[in-house]
Write a structure and sequence with these properties.
Elements (H helix, E strand, L loop, with lengths): L3 H13 L20 E2 L12 E7 L2 E6 L2 E6 L4 E6 L13 E2 L3 E5 L3 E6 L12 E5 L4 E6 L7 E11 L2 E11 L9 E12 L6 E7 L2 E6 L2 E6 L2 E6 L2 E8 L2 E7 L13 E5 L7 E5 L1 H4 L2 E5 L2 E5 L4 E4 L6 E3 L9 E7 L2 E6 L2 E6 H5 L3
Antiparallel strand pairs: 1-28, 2-3, 3-4, 4-5, 6-7, 7-8, 8-9, 10-11, 11-12, 12-13, 14-15, 15-16, 16-17, 18-19, 19-20, 20-21, 22-23, 23-24, 24-25, 26-27, 27-28
């Protein structure tokens, strides 16, 4: 019995040696301040909290939810809320893309374009226009509307009963936006035809006249209506920053079984002709990129990370107290805003960046 006493004493000492919070000068305990605030239901309505996309332009904060399009100021005060047509699919690839002037999204029959600032019809489906695309199309992705009014759509259309053809349509917005249709088809570019019953589109991006289409395990680079490069991996998300392109990459083994390369975060210094790895791992392949101010972020539904472009380190930020599924991020004034399936949360920008 006596032999057990030293062990009992040791266990007792370890159990009582817990880390205590720091003590302030007046003797009270200090707890690091780290708190998320949620935009209240007076600004984003209680029954409409599932966020699909966000962006900020000209001191305005745009939020697209499953049902409504919100315009808030940088103090998170509601300025306008408009209906947005059909309920959006809960799919990151076809989530709305909000640019400075317009928002674009799609449903099974068409893609829709909205003027972010000027309602066309206040009584029914405010500032919405529909433009029907190829009725043979079985799947479609799209780019955001650029500042020059140009955007592109990537179509997968049934070519024969057992094959699918892929093509890009390039459009330009018409002025005034009330024109019918509100866009002009400028060109159509055919990419390839696969013998496939289940077409799979993974990405569609446009940067300075160069298009990137991720289809069935390959990424096609098109410039001036010429296919310049075929990359043997999927580039899912691509953003431009300081003249460089950054992308999340997934290696599709079934297309290239003899070549092994990990999923990861990649960068291109030659406008997308070649790419090199910044970090590897499957979590990066399925992440979503955002370039905000001088920072590059990657996020999933469960975490947000800052990509330090100087050191190459990827640092996960503290979102432990954010008890919701992350869908988008944006900088709103001096705050970081995170759109989730339970509303929009925010906190101080600098405090968030230091929360490794």
């Amino acid at each position: 019995m006596r032999l057990w006493l030293p062990f009992i004493l040791i266990i007792t000492l370890f159990s009582t040696c817990k880390k205590r919070p720091p003590i302030s000068e007046n003797g009270s305990k200090t707890i690091p301040e780290y708190k998320w605030n949620r935009v209240p239901s007076s600004e984003i309505y209680l029954g409409d909290r599932v966020v699909l996309a966000m962006n900020t332009f000209d001191s305005l904060f745009y939020i697209q939810t499953e049902n409504l399009f919100y315009v808030l100021d940088t103090n998170f005060i509601l300025k306008k809320a408009y209906g947005s047509g059909p309920k959006h699919k809960n799919d990151f690839l076809t989530f709305p893309k909000i640019s400075q002037t317009h928002t674009i999204f799609s449903d099974k029959l068409a893609f829709w374009i909205k003027d972010n600032k000027s309602p066309v019809n206040q009584a029914y489906s405010p500032f919405l226009h529909i433009y029907r695309y190829d009725q043979k199309a079985v799947e479609m992705l799209y780019t955001a509307v650029k500042d020059n009014g140009i955007f592109q759509t990537l179509h997968a259309s049934r070519h024969t009963p057992d094959s699918v053809s892929y093509h890009i349509n390039t459009y330009k917005m018409l002025v005034p936006f009330t024109a019918s249709p509100p866009v002009e088809l400028l060109s159509t570019f055919g990419i390839n035809t696969y013998k496939d019953l289940n077409p799979t589109l993974y990405g569609m991006h446009l940067f300075n006249g160069v298009s990137f289409c991720s289809i069935q395990g390959f990424t096609y680079r098109i410039e001036n209506d010429v296919l310049t490069d075929t990359l043997k991996y999927d580039l899912r998300q691509i953003v431009e920053k300081d003249g460089l392109l950054y992308a999340t990459s997934q290696w599709v083994v079934y297309r290239n079984p003899t070549i092994h390369r990990g999923h990861g975060l990649v960068v291109s210094k030659d406008k997308g002709k070649s790419w090199s790895y910044i970090a590897t791992g499957s979590s990066f392949a399925h992440g979503y990129l955002r370039s905000i101010n001088d920072k590059l972020f990657i996020f999933t539904g469960n975490w947000v990370a800052h990509v330090d472009l100087t050191s190459g380190l990827v640092k996960k930020l503290n979102t432990e107290r954010l008890d919701a599924y992350i869908r988008d991020i944006a900088k709103v004034g001096s705050k970081i805003a995170i759109g989730t399936d339970a509303g929009v949360y925010y906190m101080d920008w600098n405090k968030f960046l230091s929360s490794y």
